Structure formats: C-alpha cells, structure tokens
Give the backbone structure.
Amino acid sequence: MSTRDRTAIPPRRRRPRGSRAERFAPLVLLAPAVLIIVGPRLWPLVLGINFSFTGDGDRDGTAVGFDNYLTLLGDPLFLTALRNVGLLVLLLPVAVAIPGLLATFLHLKVPGHRVYRGVYFFPAVLSPVIVGAIFTLLLAFDGPLNTVLGGLGIGPVDWLGDPDVAIFAIVGVHVWATFGMALVVFLAGFATLDPSLLDAAEVDGATLPQTIRHVIVPGLTRTIQFVFVTTLIGMLTSMFGLVYVMTSGGPEGSTYLPEYYVWIQQGQMNQPALASAASTALFLIMLVVGLAQIAVLRRTGGED
C-alpha cells in the first residue's frame, strides 16, 4: 500500500476512557439491590428504633427517651432472655462443630455418605412447629425417651418442666432441626479446599484431629466465620416456634428468648413501643456478638 493510500484512510477515533455511561453502569446495576435493602430492611429498622423512644398506652406517640430501655432492664423476664442469649453464645461452638465434623466425614466419603447427606438435611425442611410438636411428645415426662432411660436404670428427667433443663432441651432440638443447612455450607466450603493438602497430610501420617486442626480449619476459615454468624442469627431469631410449642416460655419463664419476649409484649401485652425497644436490643446484641466472633475467628485463622 502506497504512502498516499495510507494517508487517505481516516484515523480511528479512540473511545474516550471512563465515559459517563461506564462510570454510572455499576451504580445502575447495584440500584435494585440497594433499594431492596434500604426499602424493606433498613427503613423499617430505623422506624422501629425511633418508635422505641415513644410511650405505650396513655403515652402513645409521646417521646419518653430511654424509659422503655430502663423498663427492660428492670423486667426479670427480659433479663432471663438476656441470660439465655449468653447461654446460646456459649453453646454456639458446639452447634457449629457438629455439622462441621459431619461434613468432614462426608467429605472423606465414609461408607454410606450419599445416604447420610439426605438424612442429615431432612430435618431442615420441617416446620419448627412440627418439630416442636414431635419433640414435645418425645421429651414428655412419661414419653419414649424417659421410658428408654428407665430401662437403662436412669431416673426420668423432666426435660420440659425443669427450669434448669428446659432451655438446654430446646437448644438441642433446634440444633438437630437446623444443622443440615450448616452442613451444606461446610460441604460447599470443602469443594474449595485444595485436595493436595489433605493428600499431603495423609502422606505425612497426620491423624484426623491433626488434619482438622492444621489443614481443614485454616482452609475453611471464611466458611467457619459464615456458619458461626448465621447459626447465631438462627438461634436468636428462629427459635420462636420451638419455644411457643414446647414450653410457651416456661417453666417459670426460664426459656424466654428476646424474640419470644418481643412477641409477648406486642401480641399479648399490647405494648408495641416496649416491644420495639426489645427488638432494638436484640439487633444490637446480634451485631456486637457477630462482629466479635468474626474478629476472634480472623485472629484464630491467622488473617490480617
């Protein structure tokens, strides 16, 4: 091609970098998700927090400052609910370790692992009301469990009537009914784990506890963090059905949890402002405990 022909071809126009459309494209794509979060989620939360500073009854709609929160701190039932939250936090590692260990065995393909996957997940599809009704019969003082214990020479246990035992029974039922979801999450986490690390641990003669501690736990740090937080949220916000069906907050209010307390104040006592204050307290508890768990797990996992 001659020089004259080359000069006859008009030069290509360069596309301007960072055009306005390109800069706003991510915002347009994020807009629906942001609206969904801000609209149905954050806005009602803000309204609930604002409502918690108003009064009930004769003072309905009147600003009362922190009176509702002071009332909560003086209510023995709410203090019992807070104590039970502390108990749930202490039992949380057990609730996470159970699906974690089972997922480890399934990943190692123990005999019958395909069947176990379906069996372990099945309780997660049951309604809490159905689960509560079933275990109310099983854990009754004259129920099948105590009949078996009696055959073993162990005295009957008042699982749902003893204030010192009932909350542990409900937590145990909740863990049984929900660990299938955490199991699926752990199995998904194992799919991202480098198989060569497990092979190297086997070649080096590492025992199963050593493999779990030095290979699996560091490799699944993110997954463990996610399961810890979601399990805690489930314990604090998804046990209402079990408490309502199995004990109705009893005996002696020993199985009260914040969400059940909120329902009592709103649905039976007709104190929506006090219920809003309890809901706000529950939100703050979940936020603080969740952030603390993430910080501890990051430090344990050796993350920056």
In short: The mean pLDDT is 86.
